[in-house]
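queue> pop job 88
queue> type: inverse folding (structure -> sequence)
queue> payload:
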């Protein structure tokens, strides 16, 4: 029996150690993950921090779950941060970190009313919680509860050399909010003297200068803060914002780009970059059209990171509008409209948003809704034309003319006035008020002699009025000023043809065909007219070649079919001639030339020569 007892006795202590080790292993793992998460968070390694905190939280650590919230808070992904802090609070109702985290989400979103009770609860749970104490002081300051704010900030003055300067800054902020600037400077100066190498202090000084609008003094403080800790993404963001508000846009753009490169999940960096690129494009949509596609990528990312933020959807929708306008992308235009609607549903009341949505509503012919959005927005110069068109579409011609007249009356020589005059003239032309159109375009020509469009519409108006010499003069000038425009040469050619100036007509119509890369109706008519000239010259094969091209463009044109029948008939091709005469009769039953051709061909052999 002893030989069995002795080995067993030796094994018992070993088993006890193993059992103890196994029972302690999860706790040690949680502690290690928590420690690793905090280290990574402090170093700005947010992905590593998130993974470590998630492991700790999965093992049951409320502090680990709150750590997850801290990572999202650093990245300003507020919805995810709030969810994490709420879950941490459920895991441990007395965890001060969870209370502070939830309050910090609200504070950063400018809601100190909700944040303050949470900070008060946090400092009750943890009597020495510097971050919570500072946040409480800040919110009390913003709520103008200055005595309470001072008491909160004073509490941390004796918490050691690491924290004392930060609480001195808090006291300086209170004095600044009270407009006691001399006292504020005293506190800030003491803070910098006590902690010259603390980047947080330097940023606080930068914040103070920004609040006073003295950006030139703010830049060196932020730059110093970043140089002291290049890993702190919040410091870089403060520098970018200072550059932006100080209108140093190129410098801001560079810092925003570096923020996004450092951490693509840092939501404010994506928003700041997208916003700045959008504004650059908006400043001159033609010159900086490429800025809009650049802006779309960070703005789309931001809406994924913070889907509940109206500002992101508003900027994305406005950006998509300009891209769609530049590329004629109907699907993207619809996306822009949806994004702007979502932005409004989330609370966006940006005037630019309403103006852009009004344009989209005009395109959709929802005029009443468009007018309402224009009232809430800030219509720009180009919108005056749209407003005039809306009023005209609603039958309110007086209001439309009043808007256009006001623009022209303000300065008839301005670029916008000339544009408006052109639109007025075209509107009268479309309404068949040709005398009125001529009057407007002649005035515009006097102000802008190089305006090819004014000559073009003036010429077309004279043509409709049968004032052919004036029409020819105007259309010739239009074609000379816009030699690469197919429509200018086309109508000049048609007018030459009507005036029996066939040689000139041939030149202009051929030029129109050469310039027209599409299969437009004008191109088909030009082919048909040139084919007719060949027919009259008894060049049957040449006529067929051109008329077949016309038929390809205009398959339902009766005149083309008739002339093809005549060309084939005169060329001796009875089958093809009958085919095209019958085609003409399908298109226009009873067409006399086609009927005559069919009777001749079905009644006997045709006599060669001459068009039938």
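queue> result:
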């Amino acid at each position: 029996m002893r030989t069995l007892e002795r080995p067993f006795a030796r094994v018992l202590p070993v088993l006890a150690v193993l059992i103890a080790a196994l029972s302690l292993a999860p706790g040690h793992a949680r502690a290690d993950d928590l420690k690793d998460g905090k280290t990574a968070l402090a170093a700005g390694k947010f992905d590593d921090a998130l993974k470590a905190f998630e492991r700790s939280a999965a093992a049951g650590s409320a502090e680990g779950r709150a750590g997850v919230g801290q990572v999202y808070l650093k990245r300003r992904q507020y919805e995810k941060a709030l969810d994490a802090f709420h879950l941490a609070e459920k895991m441990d109702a007395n965890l001060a970190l969870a209370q502070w985290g939830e309050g910090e989400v609200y504070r950063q979103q400018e809601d100190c009313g909700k944040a303050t009770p949470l900070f008060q609860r946090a400092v009750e749970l943890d009597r020495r919680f510097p971050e919570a104490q500072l946040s409480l002081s800040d919110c009390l300051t913003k709520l103008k509860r200055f005595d309470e704010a001072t008491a909160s900030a004073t509490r941390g003055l004796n918490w050691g050399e690491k924290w004392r300067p930060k609480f001195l800054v808090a006291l300086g902020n209170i004095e600044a909010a009270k407009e006691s600037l001399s006292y504020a400077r005293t506190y800030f100066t003491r803070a910098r003297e006590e902690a010259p190498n603390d980047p947080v202090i330097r940023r606080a000084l930068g914040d103070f200068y920004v609040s006073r609008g003295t950006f030139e003094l703010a830049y060196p403080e932020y730059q110093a803060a970043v140089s002291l800790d290049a890993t702190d993404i919040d410091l870089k963001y403060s520098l970018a914002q200072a550059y932006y508000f100080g209108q140093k846009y190129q410098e801001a753009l560079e810092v925003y780009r570096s923020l996004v490169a450092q951490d693509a999940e840092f939501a404010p960096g994506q928003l700041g970059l997208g916003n700045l690129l959008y504004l650059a494009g908006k400043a001159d949509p033609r010159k900086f059209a490429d800025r809009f596609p650049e802006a779309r990528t960070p703005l789309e990312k931001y809406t994924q990171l913070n889907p509940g933020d109206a500002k992101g959807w508003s900027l994305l929708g406005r950006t998509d509008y300009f891209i769609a306008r530049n590329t004629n992308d109907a699907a993207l235009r619809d996306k822009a409209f949806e994004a702007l609607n979502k932005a409004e549903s989330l609370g966006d009341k940006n005037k630019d948003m309403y103006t852009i949505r009004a344009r989209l509503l005009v395109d959709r012919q929802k005029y009443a809704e468009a007018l309402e959005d224009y009232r809430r927005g800030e219509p720009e110069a180009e919108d005056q034309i749209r407003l005039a068109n809306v009023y005209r579409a609603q039958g309110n011609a007086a209001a439309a003319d009043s808007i256009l007249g006001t623009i022209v009356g303000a300065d008839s020589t301005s670029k916008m006035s000339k544009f408006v005059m052109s639109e007025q003239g075209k509107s009268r032309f479309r309404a068949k008020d040709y005398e009125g159109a001529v009057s407007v375009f002649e005035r515009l020509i006097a102000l802008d002699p190089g305006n090819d469009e004014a000559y073009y519409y003036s010429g077309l108006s004279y043509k409709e009025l049968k004032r052919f010499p004036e029409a020819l003069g105007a259309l010739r000038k239009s074609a000379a000023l816009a030699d690469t425009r197919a429509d200018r040469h086309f109508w000049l050619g048609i007018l030459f043809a009507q005036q029996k100036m066939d040689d000139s007509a041939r030149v202009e119509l051929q030029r129109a065909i050469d310039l027209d890369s599409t299969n437009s109706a004008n191109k088909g008519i030009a082919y048909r007219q040139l084919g007719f000239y060949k027919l009259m010259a008894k060049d049957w094969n040449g006529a067929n070649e051109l008329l077949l091209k016309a038929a390809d463009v205009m398959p339902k044109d009766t005149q083309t079919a008739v002339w093809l029948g005549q060309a084939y008939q005169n060329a001796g091709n009875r089958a093809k001639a009958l085919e095209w005469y019958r085609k003409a009769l399908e298109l226009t039953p009873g067409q006399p030339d086609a009927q005559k051709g069919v009777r001749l061909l079905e009644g006997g052999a045709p006599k060669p020569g001459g068009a039938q």
